[in-house]
Amino acid sequence: MTGDQLDPHDADVVRFAEPGARWRSVAYGPILCLLVVFLELGLHSRVHWFGLAFCAVLLAGFVALQVVAGRRHVGVELTDTELREGTEVLPLERIAEVLPERDPDSWDDEEWESARALGELSGVPRRRRGIGLKLLDGSLVQAWARDHRRLRAELAAALRPAGGGTGDGEEETP
């Protein structure tokens, strides 16, 4: 089976994923230090090998810690059975509906905008937008993602009845 084909028996096909942080950012500090080495070599000045190597390792170490934390606490993954927002996993069977986007022309806040954010965080993380979800017990929560429109579309598709209808009681016409 190639990477493009999906196993029909795999119940946890990833529909949407945002890692939260990328490992490539660990390399930025050491690359900068390497550029300084080349600059010092090109200018025929004294090369500060120990200082630049120490800075490269220190920068890479701190950024690696941030990447681990970002992937753990700000990562988003949607499968056919669950939504993982940071450290919190919400089974899709607990979601009653995906609430509409906030009307940009309205001065009033939507009720879901003050709801608890998923992921055991105090709010929606920076550079992410909230998506209102109504749970089966009637409570409201906020899912969030950078690409919030795509997550909203994938959530709506995952929650759509298996019969292929629109979900509003009307049958789709071919």
TrEMBL record:
<keyword id="KW-0812">Transmembrane</keyword>
<feature type="transmembrane region" description="Helical">
    <location>
        <begin position="49"/>
        <end position="69"/>
    </location>
</feature>
<protein>
    <recommendedName>
        <fullName>DUF3093 domain-containing protein</fullName>
    </recommendedName>
</protein>
<keyword id="KW-1133">Transmembrane helix</keyword>
<keyword id="KW-0472">Membrane</keyword>
<feature type="transmembrane region" description="Helical">
    <location>
        <begin position="25"/>
        <end position="43"/>
    </location>
</feature>
